[in-house]
Amino acid sequence: MNVYEFVQREKAHHAVVRLCHVLGVSPSGYWAWRRRVPSARSRADAQLTAQIRTIHQASRGAYGVPRVHAELVATGTRCGRTRVARLMRRAGLVGCHRRRPFHTTQRDPLAAPAADLVQRTFTASAPNQLWIADITDVPTSCEGFLYLAVILDVCSRRVVGWSMADHLRTEVVMGALEMAVWNRRPDAGRIHHSDHGCQYTSLLFGERCQAVGIRCSMGSLGDCYDNAMAESFFATLECELLARQTFRTQNEARTALFEYIEVFYNRQRRHSALGYLSPDAYERRWTAQTPVVA
Question: CA-to-CA distance for 40 and 24, rounded, in angstroms?
Fold first, then answer.
């Protein structure tokens, strides 16, 4: 904002002459600025700023410069990332920043963990080859914690299964597994990777995975990097939803989480690791580009 824009904004509260005197400019210069026709560049910046503001609002205030720029490019607007950064800074628009970590793992010392089939290689050439799973807590002001279990597909980063409960018993991860199996119909041999939480080492969970042909995998004990992708998702969830909204009841939290996962994250939110496509768009492109094997 230049000095004349500041005078224009504050003239409803102070006399123009006084503002110009304090700021060290002449009143005649201000009035000349007022009569000056905006340049083509200024008009273009104003139009682009309006587009940026719309995109930022549609992302619930979550998008920073990279994703706003990706959205503009996807809609056919050609502009540089530095220009987007300058206009967002001028408009006071910023994205979210990640905050606190989560600690919900409760290990059963008597349970035998599965082997580590991933070895920190969080890559997959196709959907439904490798799933990762974890649990987090969602606080409410009146009804304690709600717990959310998710399963993500490593190839597309899509949340393929999720479940919510007011407890940390095995049923919460079983619900996420059943949703993932129902939604994706995975072939035998697919890998489900998690930490050493007692829910994942339980006999019930292991038997269900074996029944549907899923191989269980678990990282090394006490190493956050062995389930980093799931923890990254929860950090994004915290940043873009939980740190910006307070829930009074668990029903309020359930509704917000459902809307974030199924409407925004899976279908709309642009992911940097996917070339700034949403998980849904990435999978549709992958399907279109993959030849059908007879």
Answer: 28
* 153 Rama class: left (phi>0) / alpha (psi -120 to 50) / beta: beta
Cβ-contact 104, 168 below 8 angstroms: yes
- List the structure tokens of 233: 């998702």
pLDDT of 233-267, one tens digit each?
Answer: 999 999 899 988 899 999 999 999 999 999 999 99
Backbone angles phi, psi at 144, to 5 degrees: 75, -155
Is 168:106 a contact under the CB 8 Å cutoff? Answer: yes
Furthest C-alpha separation in the chain: 83
Burial 71-109 (b: 16+ CB within 10 A, else e): bbeeeeeebeeebbeebbeeeebebbeeeeebebbeeee
Structure tokens at 42: 């200024």
What number of other Cβ atoms are within 10 A of residue 258's Cβ?
12
Q: What is the pTM of this model?
A: 0.73
Question: Position 43: which residue type?
Answer: R
The model's pLDDT over 193-212, given as tens digits with 9 standing for 90+, comes to 998 888 999 999 999 999 99
DSSP one-letter code for 166: S
